[in-house]
């Protein structure tokens, strides 16, 4: 009798194990994950709870100059260790911003407007201690006017948020086709050599943020930030669009093995990045459409924001290669690193095999 009971228990135990294994493998679980993703994405974000939510369509809304109030920021006569912590919500955050680039703007004027930015394009709030350290990496392919306009707008934008930040421009030379993924990988590596950044923003050179509640800090998952671009009527041009501004923590970056190095030209790598996130078990966050608003400067070379038809077997191909194509297979030569007043200029030759 006793032995029979034991056998029965053993039998039930094995059943339970099998059921667990089955459930784990079962595709329904993916359904559950998508459901979770849906929940997380639709959950109001912290930013939304800030007290100044406005209706975009309301006629009375006030658009602030991106430099307004910044002249109030001054270095204080306290040693760095004794600085108070910055407030959780920066007092300079106002909401919708005017995007206005002065006529005939010169880089010297931009430097003059940003006296607290240090050589190499680095800044920290002079009057308080912040716990946010963000590197902005800008792949660059000769768009000099866009860069000047971006610096004019982005520096005060980031200062409004009281972040410690730096801007890295990754300048591709030697006239091969533009390779955004590889430039992003180079920017990540070079930036991390300099500082212990806790958040990396990969930023197109021609996108200017229109709302300072769009915080340039990282969340618990990678984020596609430029969700509402004026050129696309302030919505995603297509569901899987991941271009423009993309943010993640270094640990996330390593988990997806960075970005692919093998997309040349203006070919979009959206599907590849989406697959990397999925295969490494992470979700994608997006800010609220009210905050993730951008003005796109007139496009230079980038012609296509149309969705490519997904070629059959693409996911399977990415599945096979993503662990071998990315940060761990990055080969390049740093030709120069110049500390400009408003940015660090990393000039790289990408036609270089992996070590
Ligand atoms: C910013 O400046 C405006 C006037 O330009 C003023 O009304 C507002 O109170 C200022 N905000 C802060 C935080 O100083
Ligand atoms: C900008 O430059 C053009 C041509 O050099 C000149 O005609 C115009 O007056 C300038 N505008 C301003 C605001 O200085
Ligand atoms: C970056 O440095 C390279 C090499 O000195 C130079 O040719 C290029 O014009 C610079 N680019 C920018 C945007 O400063
Ligand atoms: C492969 C190649 O052509 N590399 C060249 C890229 O440009 C730099 C400077 O302009 C040269 O030093 C490299 O030899």
Automatic annotation (TrEMBL):
Main localization of the protein described in the UniProt heading: Golgi
Domain Galactosyltransferase N-terminal: 86-219
Cofactor(s) required, per the database record: Mn(2+)
GO biological process terms, semicolon-separated: carbohydrate metabolic process
Keywords, alphabetical: Glycoprotein, Glycosyltransferase, Golgi apparatus, Manganese, Membrane, Metal-binding, Signal-anchor, Transferase, Transmembrane, Transmembrane helix
A GO molecular-function annotation: galactosyltransferase activity
Every Galactosyltransferase C-terminal domain range: 224-298
Enzyme Commission code(s) on record: 2.4.1.-
Compartments where located: Golgi apparatus membrane
Presence of the UniProt keyword 4Fe-4S in the record: no
A Pfam family recorded for this sequence: Glyco_transf_7N
Gene Ontology CC: Golgi apparatus; Golgi cisterna membrane; Golgi membrane
PANTHER family for this protein: BETA-1,4-GALACTOSYLTRANSFERASE (PTHR19300:SF34)
Function: Responsible for the synthesis of complex-type N-linked oligosaccharides in many glycoproteins as well as the carbohydrate moieties of glycolipids.
Name of the protein in question: Beta-1,4-galactosyltransferase
Organism of provenance: Equus caballus (Horse)
Gene: LOC100065936
